Amino acid sequence: MFSIVNILGIDYGERYIGLAVKTDEGIFPLDPIDSKTANRIEVLRKVVDDYNISKIVIGIPLGNEEGEKNVKNFSNLLKRELNIDCVMYDESMTSAFSEEKIKLYSSNSKNIKTKVHSISAYLILKSFLNLE
């Protein structure tokens, strides 16, 4: 029998962590994590459990040394804390593209900053799956 692998896409930011999930129902963004108000590891643990996630794809900003270092550290933290396979994938242009698209559909600029990360996570995951 064919088994669907559920995957979590992450757009990592110091303040907001964008999330998107791929299940047998498709790919869809989730609410981002606000690191100032939530325990990011506990939220991610719940998402992994709730959606039966077996792999995480994290966007990495290639060419940005500090950003790369932060993502690698976060990826190692997830591997250690959640005991899950983590793959890094080039996130070039996803945040800028996401922000541009959200501005077209949202009249509330306050929501743009938080939504952009989950839309970016969606794009990272979708791009990764197209190459897989």
TrEMBL record:
GO terms for molecular function: hydrolase activity; nuclease activity. CDD domains: YqgF. One of its GO terms (biological process) is rRNA 5'-end processing. InterPro entries: RNaseH-like_sf, YqgF, YqgF/RNaseH-like_dom, YqgF/RNaseH-like_dom_sf. GO terms for cellular component: cytosol. Keywords: Cytoplasm, Hydrolase, Nuclease, Ribosome biogenesis. Residues 5-98 form the YqgF/RNase H-like domain. The keyword Nuclease applies. It comes from the Bacteria. This is Holliday junction resolvase RuvX. It comes from candidate division CPR3 bacterium. The lineage of its organism: Bacteria, Bacteria division CPR3. The gene is ruvX.
